[in-house]
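Weekly structure sync, notes
Attendees: PL (lead), two postdocs, one rotation student
Agenda item 3: pending single-chain targets
PL asked that the sequence for the first pending target be pasted directly into the notes so everyone works from the same version. It is reproduced below exactly as submitted, 196 residues in total.
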Amino acid sequence: MSLVLDPAAQDLLFREARTANTFTDEPVTDEQVQAIYDLVKYGPTAFNQSPLRITLVRSPEARERLVTHMAEGNRPKTATAPLVAILSADNEFHEELPELFPHFPQAKDAFFSERPVREGAATLNAALQAAYFIVGVRAAGLAAGPMTGLDFEGVRKEFLDDDHTPLMVVNIGRPGPDAWFPRSPRLAYDQVVTTV
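Predicted structure, written out during the meeting:
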């Protein structure tokens, strides 16, 4: 059975999409970022909790502060990408549940009254949304360079607060020269899927 999605779109989103390591200096606009978010916000999360928060790092001063918290190998590409996004999980997402889950507004207190429960749910569901965000960047014809090589606590203290847990930093832009490392192997279907 073939996929319904056009093969060119399959290539754009998955087969030909790569993690970019260099970028051109073409800017990424707020309108592009809004279009990406307006698409990926429809990806599912449990209870529609939508805990992902996006901090766009645009100013040279903020970029310089962020670069100091990146692993050594990630510093040059973070310093030169047209746009950098810090993706984090909002551990107080439950405050929005009466609006986001209106058919059961009691979910806020019935399931998420305790902070450790919220933190686990926020991390899992924001990670799902981070994956949607990366695919959305690709859908916009841009390249994403997601990275977890960073000082998470340093990024949290520098850019967020105690209610937000950083998940990753994503460099965004048009791929530059020598942007791609060789593609790494993938597991085969029968290595991943088990029928019981």
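Discussion points:
- The mean pLDDT is 96.
- The beta strands are 52-57, 83-90, 143-147, 164-173.
Action: rotation student to compare against the earlier draft before next sync.
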